[in-house]
Amino acid sequence: MSNKPTHKTSSGELAGFVRLNEGIKGVVLIAFQINIMALNAILLAHRAGEVALGFGVISKELRSLSVELTGLMQELSNDAYLAVNLISDLLRQERRYRLLKKATDLVANPSPALRDVMVRREEEFSLITHRVRDVRLRLLDRLEDARKLCQFGTAISRSAKIEAAYGREYGRALAEVSQEFDQKIQNILPSIEALCTGMQRR
User: Fold this and answer.
1) pLDDT band at residue 31, thresholds of 50, 70 and 90?
2) Residue ranges in 49-111 assigned as alpha helix (H)
3) For 7-200, CATH number?
4) How many angstroms separate the Cα of 157 from the Cα of each of 29, 42, 122, 198?
């Protein structure tokens, strides 16, 4: 099994994807909080009327962003779950291969049937390895999309601060909401960066 990673490598990959899933849950939680905040901000902007029209538009954009980010994280979670299953299968394949290899080594002249089984195991392992690689590449693409989305969110949240300044008697409340938006977005970015780095190291 020349292209087969070691048991340690597969176990390490499994742990990496489990950590990824935990990181995704953290991002989803923040995205949910942004969604709730955006709904409240839309209501506040509606009460403020014409002076907060721009703030209301930005709040709707942030809500859309949170929904899109949540969708991306769900896709990532599905892929991470698939990767965990694939790597678990790889670990089973490795164990089977070792047992077959021991059996083959004990026999002076292994039968063609046993050699065929060994070849099939190698082919199966290679196929699963390629599927894991494809899932990892897809995960990296989606993480990059999430990073760009968060960078866009940072720009929007800064615009919210500017719009809050036009809120007159609602200015203070709008400014507080815009500050919270900015903090939440800033909390997501390091998480996304860490997830990207973790995947790139695999």
Assistant:
1) very high
2) 53-106
3) 1.20.1270
4) 18, 14, 52, 27
Long-range Cβ pairs for the range 173-182 (8 Å, 24+)? 173/44, 174/41, 174/44, 174/45, 174/48, 174/52, 174/55, 177/37, 177/40, 177/41, 177/44, 177/59, 178/55, 180/37, 181/34, 181/37, 181/38, 181/41, 181/62, 181/156, 181/157, 182/154, 182/157, 182/158
Residue 146, Cα to own-chain centre: how many angstroms?
A: 8
Q: What pLDDT, on the 0 to 100 scale, is given for residue 32? A: 93
- How many other CB atoms are found less than 10 A from the CB of residue 123? 10
Provide the pLDDT for residue 201. Answer: 66
Q: C-alpha angle 62/68/72, rounded to 5°?
A: 140
Instruction: List the one residue out of 77, 94, 81 whose CA is nearest residue 128.
Output: 94
**Average pLDDT value over all residues in the chain:** 86
pLDDT digits (tens, 9 = 90+) for 133-160: 898 889 989 999 998 998 898 899 889 9
Which residue shows structure tokens 């009460």? Answer: 47
Task: Give pLDDT tens digits for 71-103.
Answer: 999 999 999 899 889 888 888 888 888 888 887
Judged against a pLDDT cut of 90, whether residue 45 lies above it is answered with: yes
Distance CA 176, CA 40 (A): 12
Of 130, 117, 127, 135, nearest in space to 77 by CA: 135
